[in-house]
């Protein structure tokens, strides 16, 4: 396995995003003999982490949680117990996190990356953009608290990059879009200038994320693969999320291609993705307008005027329903957990009182 991060003793943890604010918040951990570390890769109860004195392989047992959303992930800052058997003992609060519903379709969320500043959504120019998929990815990106950026890849293979750019812009209000080619280097310098802090690459298999990442790194560190000619889809050459320092500062997190993109309580993200519908809805005659057959519906008026498509409204409704369903399941799970905790407390108190009665 290649060494995916340089020796931090050369540049300090600031290369990896360590700030004065984080340093001040770490005082209590430092007094306990712990040192700060950033998780670069998680693998079956262990992780690769970067510290001021170098990379370490650390145990994650102390951070186990039955809730995947609380589990350590790539990009997390943590308190590390140094020594012959190093282990992470606490996670620092996240300032942002990309969260989707877990692949098991439970009510739990899954964190794809933590403490991210920019989410690069990679879209291949070799095929028409998948509108529904792009809207889901943007919802995750906006809801994370990071800044989304759409990067159209493989411009050297595109039949009409300008047309794809124009179509994509209608799906992503308020999001910058950049046409690139890792093969020719087109706009890689522009993309590099736009990135700062921690950047994560998201997209489908075959979208060119790893090739784009290698272009940014100036080195073939990330595994790449071929795509199928019939549908432009690729195999999962990236099998786990990994954090790599960028030559000009900041870090890059590469992720496996996402097949399933289920929303997890992403209401704020959906408001951003469908900002034009949210804006139009403010002019509807009724505050609870469903944008269907109600008189005075500004959304339907925009569709009739050709300013909004039926597909866009249908996608908005579908994702709103999916998000509401996910949120309701999460609420039900949390209520169940609170009930179980209360039952355990009650049972414990009853046993305590019974023991006291027996002793009196």
What does this structure look like?
Residues 104-261 form the CP-type G domain. Its EC number is 3.6.1.-. This is Small ribosomal subunit biogenesis GTPase RsgA. Helices cover 34% and strands 20% of the residues. The chain has helices spanning 20-25, 27-31, 131-144, 161-171, 188-194, 209-217, 267-273, 275-281, 298-304, 310-359, and strands spanning 35-43, 46-51, 54-59, 77-81, 87-91, 97-101, 109-114, 118-124, 147-153, 176-179, 198-202, 242-245, 251-254. Strand 4 (77-81) and strand 5 form a beta hairpin. The radius of gyration is 24 Å and the shape is globular. Mean pLDDT is 85; it is low at 1-10 and 227-238.
In whole angstroms, how far apart are the ends?
Answer: 66 Å
Basic shape:
globular
Per DSSP E runs of 2 or more residues, the count of β-strands stands at 13
User: What is the CATH homologous superfamily assignment of the domain at 97-254?
Assistant: P-loop containing nucleotide triphosphate hydrolases
Q: For the record, what CATH class of the domain at 97-254 applies?
A: Alpha Beta
Strands side by side in the biggest sheet: 10-9-8-11-13-12
| Order of SSEs | HHEEEEEEEEHEHEHEHEEHHHH
What attributes does this structure have?
single chain, 360 residues, alpha/beta, OB fold (Dihydrolipoamide Acetyltransferase, E2P), Rossmann fold, six-stranded mixed sheet, five-stranded antiparallel sheet, 10 helices, 13 strands, disordered N terminus, metal-binding
């Amino acid at each position: 396995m290649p060494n995916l991060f340089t020796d931090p003793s050369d540049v300090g943890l600031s290369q990896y995003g360590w700030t004065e604010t984080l340093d001040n918040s770490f005082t209590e951990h430092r007094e306990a003999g712990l040192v700060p570390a950033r998780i670069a890769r998680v693998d079956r109860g262990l992780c690769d982490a970067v510290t001021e004195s170098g990379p370490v392989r650390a145990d994650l047992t102390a951070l186990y949680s039955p809730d995947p959303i609380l589990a350590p992930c790539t990009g997390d800052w943590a308190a590390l117990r140094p020594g012959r058997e190093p282990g992470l003992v606490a996670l620092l609060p996240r300032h942002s996190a990309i969260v989707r519903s877990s692949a098991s379709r439970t009510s739990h969320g899954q964190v794809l990356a933590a403490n991210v500043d920019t989410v690069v959504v990679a879209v291949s120019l070799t095929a028409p953009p998948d509108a529904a998929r792009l809207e889901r990815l943007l919802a995750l990106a906006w809801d994370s608290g990071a800044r989304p950026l759409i990067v159209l890849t493989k411009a050297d293979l595109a039949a009409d990059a300008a047309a794809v750019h124009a179509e994509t812009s209608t799906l992503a209000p308020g999001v910058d879009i950049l046409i690139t080619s890792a093969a020719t280097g087109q706009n890689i310098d522009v993309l590099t200038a736009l990135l700062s802090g921690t950047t994560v690459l998201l997209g489908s298999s075959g979208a060119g994320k790893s090739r784009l990442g290698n272009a940014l790194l100036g080195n073939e560190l990330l595994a790449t693969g071929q795509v199928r000619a019939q549908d432009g889809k690729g195999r999962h050459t990236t099998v786990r999320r990994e954090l790599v320092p960028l030559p000009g500062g900041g870090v890059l997190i590469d992720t496996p291609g996402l097949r399933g993109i289920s929303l997890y309580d992403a209401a704020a993200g959906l408001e951003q993705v469908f900002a034009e519908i949210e804006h139009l809805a403010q002019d509807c005659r009724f505050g609870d307008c469903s944008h269907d057959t109600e008189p005075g519906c500004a959304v339907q008026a925009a569709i009739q005027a050709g300013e909004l498509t039926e597909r866009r409204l249908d996608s908005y409704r579908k994702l709103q329903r999916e998000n509401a369903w996910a949120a309701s399941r999460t609420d039900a799970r949390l209520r169940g957990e609170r009930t179980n905790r209360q039952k355990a407390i009650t049972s414990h108190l009853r046993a305590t009182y019974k023991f006291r009665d027996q002793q009196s």
